[in-house]
From TrEMBL:
One Pfam family in the UniProt entry: Fringe
Domain Fringe-like glycosyltransferase positions: 144-212
Membrane topology summary: Single-pass type II membrane protein
One annotated GO molecular function: nucleotide binding
Lineage: Eukaryota, Fungi, Dikarya, Ascomycota, Pezizomycotina
Source species, domain of life: Eukaryota
Entry protein name: N-acetylgalactosaminide beta-1,3-galactosyltransferase
Key words, A-Z: Glycosyltransferase, Membrane, Nucleotide-binding, Signal-anchor, Transferase, Transmembrane, Transmembrane helix
Single GO cellular component term: membrane
Entry's localization field: Membrane
Record-linked InterPro entries: C1GALT1/C1GALT1_chp1, Fringe-like_glycosylTrfase
Pathway entry: Protein modification; protein glycosylation
Source species of the chain: Cercospora zeae-maydis SCOH1-5
Main location: membrane
Amino acid sequence: MVGLTSDNHPRTAFRYVTDGTATKGHIDVLCAAFPKEKLEHIQPVLKTGHGALQRVRTQLDSSAACLDNLLIFSDMDEQVAGRGVVDTIADIPKKLIDSDDQTLPYRVLKQHVMNGTLDQADASSLPGWETDKFKFLPDISRAWNMRPDKKWYVFFEGDTYVVWDTVFRLLEHFNPDIPHYFGSPSPGRDGTWFANGGPGLILSRAAVQRLVQYDYTWRSMKYHGSKLAEKHWHETLVNCCGDSILGWALWEEGVKLEGLWPMFNPHPPHGVPFSELYWCQPVLSMHKPHEVDVEALWRWEWRAMNMEHPLLYRDLAISFYDSFQSPSIRENWDNADWDSFEPPEFQGAHASLEHCQEACTKHHLCMQWTYHLKKCWFVRSFRLGQAKEPHVEDDRKHEKWEAKDERYMAGWDTVKINKWIKDRPCTEVQWVKPSTERIF
């Protein structure tokens, strides 16, 4: 099967829980309703770093809480919340690790571990993000080595929010013995595409087999470490990003990205620009939610669970967020840093906050607005946005500003938004088919 259509509605494998249980129930009670039988064939893999373990704890208290078979890969062997964390960079030959200054933060980290001085180390001397790209390929090798022959491997990061119900529904309709590489498309080298690592990516068994074929003596099945990482060592050194490196390695093995945007979403929940592009499609993942929102989002997901259809962007807009339901203006708030445009000059929108708001209500494309430094910005889609403290951009510091001008003031045309919502009830689920032409 090449993809899903709006007429194909896989049912959830989750068991029903009451709203009260979803809101206040113990994690163990919720996990009893999680379809753990799905994990017999699907392997979740969480990539992190020693300096980002709080994100892992947040995951284990929310969307990853029920993943008993979760693999956690990092730049250091350790324990977090009772789970083992594996250093996968160690699967790269030491002679390669020692050969380039880009791996220095990793080597410094290992030296602190050997010396027993990790607790006293200055965090600024351990910039783990600088060596993050070195984990991607050995993560693939180690995942297969530890959990071989799974039908699917789901790779995600500490700041990825995964909707597992959507993952399970989606994968029912694809053959794991065909090389599949799913994710949110980003442009890579030489005209290729790779899956943005932030929203996560999914590889089929056949795709992983192509990558790890170099890691083993196949007659004895002896594991030799990540030969995959060795093979692509030069690419790893010259390429900025691990997700791009992985995409190129897959391309060289004849596996092309099958883009499933907007199901794999590069935006955080508070930044989703709700529109025709993000509405009747299932939500599979989102990137960089506020940590304080993650548990609330997870418990809301349980309350919003529908036996017949997956979680849609429409559900997120009208149920999780309430800013779009009644008129409001937020101080020290920016909702126009995506999909915004300047209003026509004749509307006089820049004259004041009130003029900005009034001009938005009169413009057929304006769903919300932000007013800052006596400038009005309209937005075509509607989204929550986020807090932003008063600020003057460098290129405008030569001008004189009052304190009120430096504020970010944001508002929503809730009349227009609610009519738009009412006109789009999502009677059919838009299961998108793989594409690299449809990108954010």
